[in-house]
Specification:
With 174 residues, the chain is mainly α. It has a single domain (3-172), classed as Up-down Bundle (Ferritin). The chain has 6 helices and no strands. Helix 1 runs parallel beside helix 3, helix 1 (3-31) runs antiparallel to helix 4 (88-116) and helix 4 (88-116) packs antiparallel against helix 5. The longest helix is centred in the N-terminal third of the chain and has 29 residues, at 3-31. 41% of the residues are buried. InterPro entries: Ferritin-like_SF (IPR009078), Ubq_synth_Coq7 (IPR011566). Pathway: Cofactor biosynthesis; ubiquinone biosynthesis. One of its GO terms (biological process) is ubiquinone biosynthetic process. One of its GO terms (molecular function) is metal ion binding.
């Protein structure tokens, strides 16, 4: 296997799933007892399963985590809670922005692994494709729950997605 490519993929995906867990934790802290709480919990449960799998892959492939995990711990929670303070629509706008960014990121990884050798990376491709599909489902749930009606939706979405791009870039490198 191309160890640097696999290491980069597993490290950044672990960081992303860790961050997603913290975002949903922040949203649940604010909206957990509201009508949208069970929906957020359902998405969070899937993210917990994703993180568990990447924790396993980190060990199996002997990949070190990004040194930025303590920062993503705080930043993720603040983003989740902050967007939830805007109400259900704000939380869903955050979900749409993050999940769209992550599914695009997963698609880029799928392309990279397919170009390398789809047979060699069959297991990893299967995992990434499944998780991408879960993220797209979360994206659609956000849209179904009025994400686009959030205050300053386009500004919020653009800002969050710029943050996601920066987080991906940094987590791949350090």
């Amino acid at each position: 296997i191309n160890k640097p490519v696999v290491d980069r993929i597993i490290r950044v995906d672990h960081a992303g799933e860790y961050g997603a867990n913290r975002i949903y934790a922040g949203q649940m802290a604010v909206l957990g007892r509201s009508s949208v709480g069970p929906i957020i919990q359902q998405m969070w449960d899937q993210e917990k399963a994703h993180l568990k799998k990447f924790n396993e892959l980190m060990v199996a492939y002997r990949v070190r985590p990004t040194v930025l995990l303590p920062f993503w711990n705080v930043a993720g929670f603040v983003l989740g809670a902050g967007s939830a303070l805007l109400g259900k629509k704000g939380a869903m706008a955050c979900t749409v922005a993050v999940e769209e960014s992550i599914s695009n990121h997963y698609n880029n990884q799928i392309r990279t692994l397919m170009e390398e050798d789809p047979e060699k990376y069959k297991e990893l491709l299967q995992i990434i494709k499944q998780f991408r599909d879960d993220e797209l489902e979360h994206h659609d749930i956000g849209l179904e729950h009025d994400a686009e009606a959030a205050p300053v939706y386009s500004v919020l979405k653009t800002t969050i997605q710029l943050g996601c791009k920066a987080a991906i870039f940094l987590s791949e490198k350090i």
